[in-house]
Amino acid sequence: MKPPDQMILLLVDDVPDNLQAANAILKDEYKIRIATSGAKALELAGMQPPPNLILLDVMMPEMDGYEVCARLKSNPETRDIPVIFLTGLTEASDETRGFEVGAVDYIHKPFSPAVVKARVRTHLMLRQARQQLAGQLKALNDELEMARQIQLSILPAETPHMDGLDVSARYVPMSSVAGDFYDFIRVDSKHLGILIADVSGHGLSAALIASMLQVALTAQHGRADDPGRVLSGLNQCLCGKFQTHFVTAAYIFVDLEKHTLHYAGAGHPPLIMWSQSAAAAKEICENGLVLGQFPEADYDAVKLQAGPGDCFLLYTDGIPEARNPSEQQFGSERLRAFLGSNSSLAGKALVDKLLDEVWRWSNLGMGESQTDDITLLAIHFT
Q1: Alpha-helix residue ranges (DSSP H) falling in the chain
Q2: CATH of span 4-136
Q3: Cα 206 to Cα 179: distance, rounded to the nearest angstrom
Q4: pLDDT score at 209
Q5: Average pLDDT value for the chain
Q6: Helix 16-26 vs helix 113-154: angle between axes, to the nearest 10 degrees?
Q7: Residue 123 to residues 1, 52, 118, 128, 194: CA-CA distances in angstroms?
Q8: Does residue 64 carry a pLDDT above 60?
Q9: Is the pLDDT of residue 315 over 70?
Q10: Is residue 108 predicted with pLDDT exceeding 80?
Q11: Is the pLDDT of residue 368 over 60?
Q12: Is 98 buried (19+), middle (13-18) or exposed (0-12) by CB count in 10 A?
C-alpha cells in the first residue's frame, strides 16, 4: 500500500464545522482536498491525480450526496473511487439507498476519530488490494491471450487441397486455450495422414501437452502410411513427459490411388463412416491404450475401402458428450443419425450444420458455457 501521506482524500460537506472536524482527524496522515458543494466535488474528483477516497456528505443543497455519488459511479474516470457517506441519518432505508448508488460505507455524525481513521484506512487498503488483483488478472489475461495466439499458430492454417478429397475442420475451444489438437502429414498429392487428439483436462497444462503433439507428429513423417506405428511413435514421444494427464487420439492415412483409408485409435471416440453405396452410417472402432501412460502400448490399424460420396468423421468427445438442459448427452447414435440425414452436404456445410445442431441440443449460443473443447474433421471422398 502507498504511504498514507501520498494518499489523497476528498472531503465534501456544505457545513464548515463538519469539514473542519473531518480535516482535523485526517490531515496529519493524508493529503486533503475540500469541496463545499456537489458540483465542486465532481470537479475535484476529476483532477489529476484523482483522489484515492471520497468522504461525502449526504444532505447538501442543489445536489445531494446520492446524486453526486451516482454521477461519480457513472463516469469511467471516477467510478472506481470508493465513496464513504458522512451522515446524521440512521434509517436503514437511507443507508440502503446509499449502497444502491455505489457507496462502500457510512460514517455517522458526530464523528468518532477512531472510527473515521479505521474506516478510511480499511477502504484504502481494500481499494489497493482490488487494484493489485485487477493488475494481476490483466497480466494473466494477457498471458492467456498470448498462449491462445501461440496455440492457434500451431494448428493448420488451412486444410489440405487434394483432387478427390475434401477435408473440413472446425476447432472450438471452451476457453482461451484448449487440449484439443489436429494436424496433417501431407506425403504427396495422393496420400495424406490426419491426426486428431484430445488431452485430458483443460486450460494451460492441457494446451502445453497439445503443443507437444505437433513436434511429435512431425517426427512420424517417415511412417505416415502406418497408423499403428504413428500412434506408437507419438506414445513414445509423450511417455514420461507428464503424470496426471493422458491423450486420446485417432489417426487415419488416406490413399487416393487405392481408394483406401487406414485407421487406428488410442482411446479415442470411434470413427464414423457414411457409406454412399450402402446408404448407412456406422462406427469404426480400432482402439488401443491412451497415449502418454503406457510405454509398451501397441496399436493396430483397420483398412477401409472408400468410394465416391463416402464421408468419415473424426471428432473429440466434446460433441457426443454435449448435454442438453435435461443432462442428456448428444451421443453417438444421434451423431450417426445426423450424418445419415445430411450426407449430401459438402464438407464445410456439414461440419457447420453439425455444430449448430450441437449448440441447439445444448441450448447454447456459439461457444457459450461449453463444458469441453470441440474439434471436428469431415473427410469426403469426392
Answers
A1: 16-26, 38-45, 65-74, 92-100, 113-154, 203-218, 227-238, 331-341, 347-362
A2: 3.40.50.2300
A3: 5
A4: 87
A5: 91
A6: 70
A7: 12, 10, 9, 8, 58
A8: yes
A9: yes
A10: yes
A11: no
A12: buried
List own/partner pairs for 113-116 with CB under 8 A and 24 or more apart: 113/25, 116/22, 116/25, 116/26
The residue extents of the domains of the chain are 4-136, 155-381
Cell numbers placing 254: 488416406
User: Which pLDDT tens digit goes with each residue over 218-268?
Assistant: 999 999 999 999 999 999 999 999 888 999 999 999 999 999 999 999 999
d(CA 183, CA 203): 20
pLDDT tops 90 at residue 353: yes
**Is 28 exposed, middle or buried (CB count within 10 Å of its CB: 0-12, 13-18, 19+)?**
exposed
Three-class SS of residue 192? strand
Grid cell at residue 60: 447538501
DSSP 239-273: TTS-SS--EEEEEEEEETTTTEEEEEEESPPPEEE
Structural Rg of the chain based on CA atoms: 32
pLDDT of residue 91: 78
CA 103 from chain centre, in angstroms, equals 32
Q: CA 246 to CA 53: how far, in whole Å?
A: 51
User: Are the C-beta atoms of 152 and 183 separated by less than 8 Å?
Assistant: no
Residue 2's Cβ-count burial label (10 Å; 0-12, 13-18, 19+) is exposed
What is the spatial distance between Cα 48 and Cα 97, in angstroms, rounded to a whole number? 29
> What's the rounded Cα separation, in Å, for the pair 378 and 170?
9
**What CATH architecture is 155-381?**
4-Layer Sandwich (3.60)
pLDDT above 60: residue 367: no
Per-residue model confidence (pLDDT) at position 372? 81
Q: Would you state the pLDDT for residue 220?
A: 96
The Cα–Cα gap between 201 and 78 comes to 41
Helix/strand/coil for 210: helix
C-alpha cell at 222: 517417415
Query: In this structure, what C-alpha cell is assigned to residue 7?
Result: 494518499
Handedness of CA 342, 343, 344, 349 (dihedral sign): positive
